[in-house]
Specification:
This protein is mainly beta. It contains 5 helices and 25 strands.
Length: 355
């Protein structure tokens, strides 16, 4: 059983010892929430948290922005790197940490060399609020974890009348949610994007690909869709706050403001104020990540070394058909995840890749 060494965001401004955790061993039990609020305030496809035994330090909290998403919860994200870090329950004062900020202790393997400790950061006990999405979101693909059957609920188990969803219903969602063609009625002319507070909104035009288009980001089966994949790298995890970062890959020419102006990317991104509340974080020499400065939702990743593609966090997509996975727009790759060697929730990765 591995032990976390600390909790931290990518830039390190938010840092807490593992003694802040109510349960200092791992995997730490957690519920994965698929509600609209959790997705649209983070950019993730689902949100799962671990319980703390008290409030984070004042030093950490002064480095965060607080966003009261409802009368029930206030959410906190790092002002500098945008990482979702904490949630406070306004009902009982309880504090939670976003599961992705748990850093595991490393095991030494020879002088000057380290390997990550094995095992899972979290143990998902159930999925809830699947009814916030017509397609059930990513939950139907994450119901077999480490030999366990993980139940899925339409809302919360405590208010559910009919118990968890039946396996047949979950299988039906699996079979249909990602296979909807780009010609689906109701898809809409443009794909809308918005964080929860609405401070970061934009539009995406359909793919410009044709029969001769080539590249890893061009779907083979349906050129009317964009390629999508999960990433497990440490940098994505510590700027999102969760262990699975969902990206879709879109040419910069297809992004527009709500006023139909082309969006500027590249080195001039930080100086261009086209999207009112968009903040930027230079996570490395050639990479800029962007997030909402009000609610904290992850929006963009762009690498100056591949300027022909912009990564967009899928959790802020607003499918007109009500689909979290936006299967009518996105072609999901379930053959591979990016940086699997850096995954810290291997059971989730294995479930996603299992067909």
């Amino acid at each position: 059983m591995s032990v976390p060494s600390h909790l931290a965001c990518h830039c390190g401004l938010v840092y807490e010892p593992s003694s802040l955790l109510a349960n200092s061993s791992m995997p730490n039990e957690s519920i994965m929430c698929h509600c609209n609020v959790c997705r649209h305030t983070t950019g993730s496809l689902g949100a799962w948290y671990v319980t703390l035994n008290g409030a984070p330090s004042e030093k950490s909290l002064t480095c965060t922005t607080a966003y009261k998403s409802s009368e029930k919860y206030t959410r906190y994200f790092c002002k500098k790197c945008g990482c979702n870090v904490f949630v406070r329950s306004e009902r009982d004062g309880r504090w939670l940490a976003c599961a992705g900020i748990l850093e595991r202790s490393e095991e030494s393997k020879g002088e000057g060399s380290h390997v990550k400790a094995k095992g899972n950061v979290t143990n998902i006990t159930c999925h809830w609020y699947l009814d916030d999405a017509v397609d059930g979101g990513i939950a139907p693909f994450l119901t077999k974890l480490g030999g366990r059957n993980v139940p899925c609920y339409r809302t919360e188990p405590s208010i559910e009348d009919n118990g968890p969803l039946k396996e047949g219903d979950l299988l039906q969602l699996q079979e249909t949610s990602l296979t909807q063609p780009s010609s689906s009625p109701g898809r809409g002319r443009m794909l809308e994007v918005s964080c929860y507070c609405g401070g970061c909104q934009l539009l995406i035009a359909p793919p410009p690909y044709n029969s001769t288009s080539e590249g890893w980001f061009v779907p083979k089966a349906d050129h009317g869709k964009y390629y999508a994949r999960l990433c497990c790298c440490r940098s994505c995890r510590l700027t999102l706050g969760f262990t699975l970062q969902p990206w879709t890959y879109i040419p910069p020419s297809q992004f527009f403001t709500v006023d139909n102006e082309p969006i500027v990317f590249g080195p001039l991104t930080k100086e261009t104020r086209q999207i009112d509340k968009l903040s930027h974080y230079q996570s490395s020499e050639f990479v800029v990540r962007s997030f909402c400065s009000v609610c904290g939702a992850t929006i963009f990743y762009q690498s100056f070394e591949r300027p022909y593609i912009i990564d967009l966090s899928v959790g802020v997509l607003r499918s007109k058909m009500g689909n979290t996975m936006a299967g009518e727009w996105l072609d999901w790759d379930r053959e591979i995840v990016s940086k699997r060697d850096e995954a810290v929730d291997e059971a989730l990765v294995e479930a996603w890749l299992r067909k």
